[in-house]
Amino acid sequence: MMFKKTLIAVSLAATSLASTSALALEKVDLLIKNATVLTMDQEKTVFDNGLVAVKENKIFAVTDGSDVKDYLAAKVIDANGDIVLPGLINTHTHVSMTVFRSMADDVPDRLHRYIFPLEKKLVSRDMVRIGAQLGNVEMLKGGVTTYADMYYFEDEVAKTVDEIGMRAVLGETVIKFPVADAANADEGIQYALNFIKEYKDHPRITPAFAPHAPYTNTTEILQKITKLSLEHDVPVMIHLAESERENQVIAERSGGKTPVGYMADIGALTPNLVGAHVINVDDNDIALLKKHDVGIAHNMSANIKSAKGVSPALKMFDDGLRIGLGTDGPMSGNTISTIDEFNQVAKVHKLVNKDRAAMPPMKVIEMATIGAARALHMEDTIGSLETGKLADIIIIDTTAPNMVPVYNPYSALVYSAYATNVKHTIVDGKLLMEDRNMLTVDEDAIREEALKFADKVRKTVVESGEVVQ
Questions:
Q1: Using an 8 Å Cβ cutoff, are 305 and 325 in contact?
Q2: pLDDT in tens, 149-185
Q3: Residue 436, Cα to own-chain centre: how many angstroms?
Q4: C-alpha to C-alpha distance for 413 and 419, rounded to whole angstroms
Q5: Which pTM does this prediction carry?
Q6: Among residues 144, 151, 146, 149, which one has the least CA distance to residue 167?
Q7: Which burial class, exposed, middle or buried, applies to 337 when counting CB atoms under 10 A from its CB (0-12, 13-18, 19+)?
């Protein structure tokens, strides 16, 4: 009998010890272990067998993994050597245009001769919603956790972002001629103001103004938007220094100034501004952009596909400007996952600089993560894996044939990786894609609805012979 009591006492003591030990562990919601962690912090710290711990929606710890037994996690992901890095940030796109992808790809002066007329016929709330849902899935599966968008009916885009769980800066387009959601620029500004009021306090959505370009708006419109953006403390996204048409119109309007010089003169260059493309700029323009702390979205694929030239993005990056990677819209790039930009960004800048060492992989990854966060003035909350930052994280499969072997993780990502190598995507501490399966939306249903809309596009534009060429 005494022997039995002793066993019970020992058992209770062991249970008590285990309970005390469990209480001593740090409880977290998610633990990623055995990972090649690219933190993208200021020192570009890399942990070869590291861990990332997430509590609620923030990064709780990023370590070398030696403390893995100190955590008690509700969910554990064993990366088994896979690459873990901050979620990619797409600094410029038009997500809803996925439903128009691959149309009239090689039409000269495509924006004015094809896209604007196409949008006049087909843009609606329904089209914006359907296209945004499809694009969100494409980006999330390609590792994009945050994106900056410019289009119409941006409140519809916001609903899709909220549903899937992504992060986004969404700009309501303002343009001087009639469009689907506004008869003129003033109506567009009012639409934007209503949108800003509705979403200003959303935890993952930042509403913004998006004047289409300097040449498609008047000086008065641009100045009004600048003033309102500062009053409401919201971003302004614009196509800037992108085309020869823009150069000509602005030179005529301003007495020979460049688009950047003109924007500076009218007071429209501010830290709230994010300029997309920024191809046709000289040293004086670059100095103005830096002086006014303007963000820049570098869209290599779209720029070279449209034959508009190569932005001096490397110079701007090296000069300390706020510059990040974007894709432009799915009629321009044509994919909208930033990872598809990596290879071209690295190689084309080598070509134009005639220097094999130009634009090394680490710079490309920086421009896709913390650099893109800087371009959007969001570097304090996203863009790197650091304690206290929001938990936007992706995991890249390193066992795929195109990723074997990995000697340098930066090189592997830039020169070898596909968007399909993204295995898990986490936004705001929530696992939104696991083993390439979407967890918050029905991917098949979204694809089917997009295909049905494509039938409408085909009948309205293609089969009817109303293609503008």
A1: no
A2: 999 999 999 999 999 999 999 999 999 999 999 999 9
A3: 19
A4: 10
A5: 0.93
A6: 146
A7: buried
For 44, the token pair is: 């570009």
Q: What whole-number distance in Å separates Cα of residue 214 and Cα of residue 262?
A: 9
Question: Can you list the alpha helix ranges (DSSP code H) found in 339-431?
Answer: 342-353, 361-368, 370-375, 409-411
Could you identify the residue written with the tokens 């694009």? Answer: 135
Vertex 197: Cα angle to 194 and 201 (nearest 5): 150
* Residues 262/250, Cβ–Cβ less than 8 Å: yes
Q: Is residue 19 scored above 60 in pLDDT?
A: no
Structure tokens of 251? 């030179």
Q: What are the φ and ψ backbone dihedral angles of 417, each rounded to 5 degrees?
A: -75, 150
Is it true that the peptide bond before 334 is cis, omega within 30 degrees of 0?
Answer: yes
Residue pair 362/413 in contact (Cβ under 8 Å)? The answer is no
Is the pLDDT assigned to residue 18 strictly greater than 50? no
For CA atoms 247, 249, 251, 253, the dihedral sign is: negative
Q: What is the rounded distance in angstroms from the CA atom of residue 419 to the CA atom of residue 337? A: 7
> Buried b / exposed e across 376-387, counting CB within 10 Å, b at 16+?
bbbbeebbbbbe
Per-residue DSSP letter, 165: T
Quote the tokens at residue 438: 């979407």
Q: How far is Cα 429 from Cα 193, in angstroms, rounded to an integer?
A: 30
Residue with tokens 């929530």: 430
Encode 105-142 in three state secondary structure.
Answer: CCCCCHHHHHHHHHHHHHCCHHHHHHHHHHHHHHHHHC
